[in-house]
Amino acid sequence: MWPARVIRDGSVPNNSSVVLVVETYGLRLLLTGDVESAAQVAVRSAIGGATIDVVKVPHHGSRMAEETFPAAVNPKVALVSVGRDNDYGHPAPGTMALWEATGATIGRTDLDGDLAVLGDLSLVRRGVIGE
User: Fold this and answer.
1) What φ, ψ does residue 58 adopt, rounded to 5°?
2) Distances from the Cα of 108 to the Cα of 15, 44, 99, angstroms
3) Each residue of 11-26: pLDDT tens digit?
4) Which of 5, 30, 128, 131 is deepest in the core (most CB within 10 A)?
5) Which of 2, 25, 33 shows the shortest CA–CA distance to 120?
6) Contact 45, 21 (CB under 8 A)
7) Could you count the other beta carbons within 10 Å of the beta carbon of residue 83?
8) First to last CA, the chain
9) The pTM is what?
10) 53: buried, middle or exposed (CB in 10 Å: 19+, 13-18, 0-12)?
11) CA distance 115 to 107
12) Rounded to whole angstroms, how far apart are CA atoms 32 and 47?
């Protein structure tokens, strides 16, 4: 579904990330790559009011989030793929607060290790390697 056009605000490579809506077994997943705020606005418009069950939180939960995107997506499960103790400070606390406000079950790879979402939308956390 994305990129539909080039966005020059922020990082062009990040905003050119492939964004997919995947429908499988009655579930809808939004896979967002590293899109930043300007691209998130466009993605939000493109999905309209579609029900999203699972979202891969954009750009590792960076501060480059569009503040209405989490509420508009309103997922049941939000996954943050992020390295532990990364140099970028991802995920940003303010961005995480926006996702937490949706009421979604949140999984973070830095805290929870490998994550799996089951068909009933339960989240399996496999633990961080080395702990």
Assistant:
1) -60, 145
2) 22, 22, 12
3) 999 999 999 999 999 9
4) 30
5) 25
6) no
7) 11
8) 38
9) 0.93
10) middle
11) 7
12) 12
Tens of pLDDT, residues 51-69: 999 999 999 999 999 999 9
CA distance 76 to 93: 20
One DSSP character per residue, the chain reads -B-SS---SS-HHHHT--BEEEEETTEEEEE-TT--HHHHHHHHHHHTT---SEEE-GGGG-S---TTHHHHH--SEEEE---TT-TT-PSPHHHHHHHHTTT-EEEEHHHHBSEEE-TTS-EEE-B-TT-
Q: Is the CB of residue 82 less than 8 Å from the CB of residue 106?
A: no
- Six token digits for residue 84: 């532990």
Going along the chain from its start, the domains and CATH numbers come out as 12-125 (3.60.15.10)
